[in-house]
Every structure is written in structure tokens, then in C-alpha cells.
Amino acid sequence: MNDSAPPTLQNSAVDQLYQRLRTEIIHGDIAMGSKISEAEISRNYNVSRSTVREAIGRLESTYLVSRKANAGARVVELDINELLEIYQVREALEGMACRLAAEQMSDAKIVELEQLLKAHMESSELQTGQAYYQKEGDLDFHYRLVQGSQNSKLIHFLCDELYTKLRMYRYQFGMVSPRAVDAYAEHRHIVQAINDRDGEMAEMLMRRHIRASRLNVERQVQLRAEQ
Fold first, then answer.
1. What is the per-residue DSSP string for 108-126?
2. Residue 146 and residue 154 in contact, taking contact as beta carbons nearer than 8 Å
3. Cα separation, 171 vs 75, whole angstroms
4. Considering only CA atoms, which of 137, 214, 226, 117 is closest in space to residue 169?
5. pTM, to two decimals
6. I need a surface site. Which of 30, 140, 177, 208 has the fewest CB within 10 A?
């Protein structure tokens, strides 16, 4: 692939490189704080420098890569205080998204949400209470709910800007949680409130749900500090 490739092919190359680098950063295969070298990526992935620059730009827009003057681009460092701040923002905004979803989601979309939860329950990790892992995008309960709000500003902020960074935290800070079964039950109650078209109840339940997750993270951090 060279710089003179047709736009459709060039965009395809950018998309592929972005998705590959994104996955490797989220999973920790490219370590936090690592320097991002255009020349090295171009050589290792056999793509043009312009493709690399575009892919890095997209990684910056999702807050996986940061660029500083005279220091170049680097993979972001994760910080527990930032994670707690993200939870605080999510508590307010996803609560709002649930209220809107109760008003906006069609009956068919709510049925799909119920089916998604049934599919989640088939996970052996959830059945044993070890973890509640959700694949991303439309297979993620929170992502689907925010989409159901039909509010473009909420969708952009929660599903585009914050979502990828949050998944990086989930992978690298661990997904095993004593709240796995409780979290699933809370999801079911939220869907029931949406199905009842009770926006206030749906918002309250989502806020409580995310607050409980934040408090769980705080407890785990405290336990680690005491060890």
C-alpha cells in the first residue's frame, strides 16, 4: 500500500491499522507509555507513513494516544483517579441516557435488549460469579442503552470519546469482580424499568448501578494499598 492508493483503499488501510493498533493498546500488547514511531509502525505493519499518521490521529481522538511537543506520540498512561472521574461522569450521563431510552426505544429494540441479557447469561464466567465480560459495541449492554437514547451528543461523548478508554481500563485493571452477578441483576431491573416506560426509575437504577461499580473499584484500590 502506497501513498497514491485510491481513497477507498487508503481508508480501508487506515481502518484496518487503526483497529489493530486500538486492540493491541486496549489489551496491553502495546504497553502504556510506549512511544509511537511512525517509521516503526510503517515498517512492522507494511503500510504507508500517511496511513500511520491517520491511524494515530484516530487513536488520539479516542484518547488512547497523546502527543506532546518535542516528545512525539505515546500510548496514554492509566490512572485510577481518572477512572473514578469517568465513573462519576457516567453515573450522571448514562442515567440520563436511560431516562431517554425509556421514552425513545421501540418495543422491538427493548426486546433485543432483553435478548442481549439472555445471551450474556450464557457466559460461564457470569454463571460462576467470576466476571461479567461483555464484548464491545452492540454486544455491550451500556453501549446499546446509550444508543437507545437517540441523543447524538450523549452517543458521541459516551460511545465515541469515553468508550474506548474505558475498555482499556477494564482490560488492564482486571475484569474479575465480586459484583458480577449483582451487576447482571441490576441490568435486568434497568431493562424492566425501560420496558415499563418509567424513565425516572430507569435513570435512578442506572445511577445506582454505576455508583456501586465505582465504589467497588475504590474498595479494591484501598485493599491493594493496604497489602
1. HHHHHHHHHHHHHHT-HHH
2. yes
3. 15
4. 214
5. 0.81
6. 208
Task: Give me the numbers of helices (H) and strands (E) for the chain, helices first please.
Answer: 11, 3
To the nearest 5 percent, what fractions of the chain are helix, strand and coil?
Answer: 70, 5, 25
DSSP conformation class of 78? P
Amino acid at 32: M
Across the 227 residues of the chain, what is the mean pLDDT of every consecutive 10-residue run? 40 89 92 92 94 93 87 89 92 97 97 92 65 66 95 94 86 70 92 98 97 88 75
- Torsion angles phi and psi, residue 221, rounded to 5: -65, -40
> Residue 9 has what pLDDT?
41
Domains of the chain: 7-75 (1.10.10.10), 80-226 (1.20.120.530)
Q: How far apart are CA 159 and CA 162, in angstroms?
A: 6
